[in-house]
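Cross-check.
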Amino acid sequence: MFLKMLAIVSSLAGMIAASAAPPLPPPAVPSIPNNGSLRVTVKLLKPQVRVGHSCPVEMDVANISSRPQTLYTYGCSWGELWSISDRRLFFQGGSGPCHWNPLRVITLKPGEQFRQDAALETDAKPGNIRFRVTFYPGKGRSFESDTLTLKVTS
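Predicted model, tokenized:
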């Protein structure tokens, strides 16, 4: 009897361990060919920033083609799909832990745009930082903004 109960407990422990697997990573972003149909525009809402402070920015992705365009972003890890060409600048951290990070599929009709609000920070020495922002809406595609200049003050 004891051996039978031990076998049942062992079997249940194995089932519980199998069900406690780590959470799955976010789904992969589907591959879409780069057809030059999106334009990225970045607007600095302040022309300068003090070292250790943030500068709000508006990052727009516009459909400049004559047909609908699909792009992908995530709920709270959206920053993984955007990059800044100068390593002295970085996106300000989020407002807290990410408990739900869904893949968002966004379809833009011709002329429509998607906006991602963000804030840039720097720990660079005072001076001008020239940079571009690149958006990666799907594997194999990237769209770069025009060059911007942010003045850093002490």
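The CA atoms of residues 1 and 7 lie 10 Å apart. The longest helix spans residues 2-19. Passed to J.P. for a second look.
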